[in-house]
Amino acid sequence: MSQTNQSFSLLLAASIILVGCCKDDISKRHGEADVSFDSKWDYMDVVFYNESNGTVSIKLVHPNIGGLAEHLRFKNIDPAEGNVPLLYVREGSGLQEGRPTAYLDVVIDEDALGEIYVIDTSVTMISTLTLNCVSNNRISGEFEVNFVYSQLNGPIKFAEYIPDTFKLFNGKFDAARGD
């Protein structure tokens, strides 16, 4: 192979590799998902955090009217590109007991916990998270999650508009690293 052909081959290989990788910077922290009982939810604040055990947590915030917001959280996620089956897993103790690898919190006035929805294990559809891009400052991916009203909730339901079981599907996000 001539020197020119060899140089061209190396340049072409490097270009293919660069096109396949995601950029480390992110200009927009956004997400969206279709909801089985509502129209599309747009997530305005999408961040991820590196955890001390080497995993990441991802949080997507859907602001709502009337002082309520839905916080979708993925927890204990291996920061590698690929498909992650989401399971209901009991872990830790105290406030962490019973928290799954994905859950949805209804938050009242930005700081009070309303109710919790956990992964619904009674449905045949598997809940999944797919990480398409993982870098130091950015994680992007797709998700489909089936939720059920948690038995850990108290007697008052604040978000009456959310049924006891529902599904988020066709979900996608672009998350920036949180502080």
Structure in words:
This protein is mostly beta strands. It has one domain. It contains 1 helix and 11 strands; from the N terminus they run αβββββββββββ. A 7-stranded mixed barrel has the order 3-4-5-7-8-10-11. It is globular, with a radius of gyration of 19 Å. Mean pLDDT is 80; it is low at 7-20 and 92-100.
Taking the sheet with the most strands, its summary is: 7 strands, mixed, barrel
User: Oligomerization state of this entry?
Assistant: single chain
Taking all Cα atoms into account, the compactness measure Rg is 19 Å
Helix content: 10-25%
State mean pLDDT (0 to 100 scale): 80
Name the beta content range: over 45%
- Structurally, how many domains make up the residues? 1
Can you count the helices? 1
Indicate the overall shape.
globular
Order of helices and strands: HEEEEEEEEEEE
| Beta-strand segment tally | 11
Low-confidence stretches: 7-20, 92-100
**How widely separated are the two ends?**
50 Å
How would the blueprint of this fold be written?
Elements: H1 3-20, E1 30-35, E2 38-43, E3 45-50, E4 56-63, E5 68-77, E6 82-86, E7 102-108, E8 112-119, E9 127-134, E10 138-149, E11 165-177
Parallel strand pairs: 3-11
Antiparallel strand pairs: 1-2, 1-11, 3-4, 4-5, 5-7, 6-9, 7-8, 8-10, 9-10, 10-11
